[in-house]
Amino acid sequence: MFFEYDLLLMTLCIFIPSVFALALLFFPSGSEEYMRWFSLTGTVVTFVISSFVFIDYLRMLDNNNDPALMGAGIKRADKKTTLMERASAAAKAEAENKPFANDDLHARFPWISRFNIEYYIGVDGISMAMILLTTVLFVLSMIASWGIEKYVKGYCMLFLILETGVLGTFFSLDFFLFYIFWEVMLLPMYFLIGVWGGKNREYAAIKFFLYTLFGSIFILIALLGFYFTDVQDFANKETLNAKAAEVIARNPALKKAQDAAKNDAAAKARVMAAALTKVEIHSFDLIVLARTGAAAMEWMHLTDTKARDKFLQKIVDQRARDGNPTTKEAVEKRMSQTFFTPTFQYVMFLFLFVGFAIKVPIFPFHTWLPDAHVEAPTPISMILAGILLKLGGYGILRIAYPICPWAAHALAWYLCILAMINIIYGAFAAMAQADFKKLVAYSSISHMGYVLLGIAVWPQTGEQYWAWGMNGAMYQMIAHGISSAGMFFCVGVIYDRAHHRNLDNFRGLYEPMPLYGGISALIFFAALGLPGLCGFVGEFMVVLSAWNFSTPEYPNAGKIFAVLSALTVVITAAYILWTLQRVYFGTNDAYKDYPDITVRELLCVIPLAILAIVLGILPALVLQWMEPHVTFFVDSLMQIRT
Amino acid sequence: MPDLSEKPGLLFVLATLLPLAGFTLLLTVAAIRWALRPYAAESPTADAVFKALGGEVTGRGPAYVALGSIALAFLCCVVGFVWFCIDAAHMHHLEHDIRHYEAEHAEPHHHGPGKAKKKAKDEPADEAAKEKAAKAKADAKTKHDQNVGDYNRLTKNWEGALEWARIFPSKDNVADTKHGTLLTLGFRIDMLSAVMFVMVTLIATLIHLFSIGYMSEELQETVEDHEVHTAHGHYHRRGRYGRFFMFLSLFCFSMLNLILADNLFQIFVSWELVGICSYLLIGFYFERTSASNAANKAFITNRVGDAGFIIGLLIVWTYFGTFNFQEIFSRVRCPERDADDVILINEKPAGHSIVRAKTDRVLKTGRFVKLDSNGDVALIFPRERIMGNVPGHFHGPSSTTAVHDSPRSREYGFIPYWLLVVAGLGIFLGCVGKSAQFPLQVWLPDAMEGPTPVSALIHAATMVAAGVYLVGRCYPLFTPEVLLTIAYIGGITLFVAASIAMVVTDIKKVLAYSTVSQLGYMMLALGVGGWTAGLLHLLTHAFFKALLFLGSGSVIYGCHHQQDMLKMGGLFDKMKITALTMLVGVLAIAGTPFFSGWYSKDEILVAAFGFSMTHPQHFLLFLLPLVTAGITTFYMFRMWFMTFTGEPRDEHVYKHAEETPWVMTTPLVILAIFSVGVAWGWPPHDPEHSWLGQQLHHYSQPAAVDVDFKASHELLHGTPSYHTMVGMLALAVVAIGVAFALVLYYYNVLDPNEAVEQFPGVHKFLLHKWYFDELYSALLVRPGLIFAHWCSGFDTIVINGFVHLVAKWNMFVSYVSGLFDKGIIDGSVNLLADVSYSVGNWLRNVQTGYLRSYVLFLALAAMAIWMLLYAWATAMGGP
Question: With an 8 Å Cβ cutoff, are A570 and B179 in contact?
Answer without folding.
Answer: no
